[in-house]
Amino acid sequence: MTKLIIQIPCLNEAETLHCVINDLPKEIPGIDCIETLVIDDGSRDGTSATALGLGVHHVVRHRRNRGLAAAFATGIDAALEFEADIIVNTDGDHQYPGEHIAALVKPILDGRADVVIGDRQPEQNRHQPWLKRQLYRLGRWTVSWILGEPIPDPVSGFRAYSREAAGKLCVVTRYSYTIETLVQSVEHGMAIEFVPITSNPPTRPSRLYRSHFQFVSRSAATLLRVFFMFHPLQTMLWLSTALATLGLLPIVRFLTFYALGQGDGHVQSLVLGVGALTLASLTLLAGIVADSVSFRRLLLVNTTRSPRSSSNSLQASPITKRR
Q: Transmembrane ranges (predicted)?
């Protein structure tokens, strides 16, 4: 029997949750059982009670607001505990139409993909301001370049995971799970597909960021942090090369003047260059050490793959489990 659990992270979504639940599919070809899971991230508007009243199968509540990434991770843990074969993540503000869930899970059912992401085609989405669409374009190009494969919509939260793929995720950031889990999926060699979807008009301003600058800066920081976690030597090698190049320039300048018999007045160039080369060497050494630590960490993760960490469950309370 193939079980699908649709998880919905929520923060004060009592007003829109009924739209989300009523829009979810009741049956999908190839799926024998569909259950819903609401993760209440410390809401104060009665979101949990609303979910129970709407007949949600599982409700898990954080005792305090811990952020979207933590709510997503709690949902993954709970869905695996409830023996989900496929997990779909959608939003509590009804951004994603439920009619697309069948298309989202089909590549997993067909055995073609481990992770499927809904491509909102944000650059053509007229619901979004022009500036935000251009930032999406820049973000898509940057993520695709760093990961080395085309990523049409890297920050879409409308996703489907196979049970095996979900079990390999480990969310550590406090901001958002989208970039972090995408990088992890690529690095773990998971088959990823994107399916085109539409999105509903916004029902409220985003609670994830206050400005476009904050959105871009936090997403970039998350991308670089997670990439460094998997490729510390490559990252530090780039930085070391840049520092070495900057160090060679003043040294070449000093040698040029020295060859002309004017080296006495340009010793500071030599000092600056040697300092930059020393820093480049230390950076490369730090990269080698970090790469060794990263390798040991990945080896430990692969050899101790077991029930997922209980760190989320210790801070989340299951309210109900309805069969």
A: 236-258, 270-290
